[in-house]
Amino acid sequence: MKNFSLPFIPERLDKPREKGLTMMMDKGLSLSQTADFIEANEHLTDIVKFGFGTAFVTNDLEKKIALYKAHNIRPYFGGTLFEAFYARGMFEDYLRLVDKYDLDLAEISDGSIIIPHDEKCELIRTMAKDRTVLSEVGSKDSGILISPNKWIKMMSTELEAGSWKVIAEGRESGNVGVFRPNGTAHTFLINKIIAKIEPNSILWEAPIKNQQVWFIKLFGANVNLGNIAPHEVIPLECLRIGLRGDTFFENLPADYADRLKQVNSDDIDED
Question: Which InterPro entries match (predicted)?
């Protein structure tokens, strides 16, 4: 949706889309807050994750799911809930739970527990028969380091097993996985990954603005980003299309950008 015309705005694909996804992290919105969120953000939000195990204790869960689905937003349970079931030997129960709530999207992760990778890929194959699967790569434990080659192997084999997208772990804190402890992007790791894995197949968890800016500058407006807070969906869209200072010059023609930057420099010199 565009309220008026403005040149040099990058094209954003309409929903449903395969790239440029925005995943909002719902950590316990009330039913009325969900309705308010949808009113403001329906056109910008592709998928919603009920963060970690919040689905277990969220009021009006069934009504919330129905509300999201009625407005073309695909909800799913966070990977930690899957891990909680799997750690208790209840994988079949988890499948029944997903079916009970009529969710077409499901996440398989091993960020908190260890699942042999061949076993994880078999779980993906099983779940992908009837559902769209998101699988997450990377540990939530900052002390567990995974080599770039292992990241690449896990991502590629999970996509081959049937994952729609692989999620690059970043947590809601944005300081593990593809990020360093200080929150900056692990550029060496990410460059290694995208040399082998199609970037549109990856959904990058990027809860912090400077992380979002970094990915947008690297991949453009239609990068897949996740773990976005409800109140940050519209600000993120403005980052994507160059209507915030951090990405203002990304889509302007070079002669415009050079001229405007020179004007700004002259103004500073005069002071």
Answer: Aldolase_TIM (IPR013785), ComA_synth (IPR003830), ComA_synth_sf (IPR036112)
**Cis peptide, bond prior to residue 199, ω within 30 of zero:** no
Count of alpha carbons within 13 Å of 228, Cβ hemisphere only? 30
Residues 174-180, mean pLDDT to the nearest whole number: 72
Angle at 266 between CA 263 and CA 271, to 5 degrees: 130
Cβ atoms of residues 215 and 239 within 8 Å: no
Cα–Cα dist 186/194, whole Å: 12
The Cα 233–Cα 40 span in angstroms is 9
pLDDT tens-digit map of 92-117: 999 999 999 999 999 999 988 999 99
Q: What are the structural domains of the chain?
A: 22-240 (3.20.20.70)
- 78: which DSSP letter? -
φ and ψ at residue 76, rounded to 5 degrees: -160, 160
- Give yes or no for a contact between 51 and 25, defined as CB atoms under 8 angstroms apart: yes
Q: What is the pLDDT of residues 22-51, one digit of tens each?
A: 999 999 999 999 999 999 999 999 999 999
The predicted pLDDT at position 270 comes to 46
Dist. CA 132–CA 124, nearest whole Å: 10
The sheet carrying 74-77 orders its strands as 74-77, 47-50, 22-26, 225-228, 202-205, 163-168, 132-137, 105-108
Report pLDDT for 29: 97
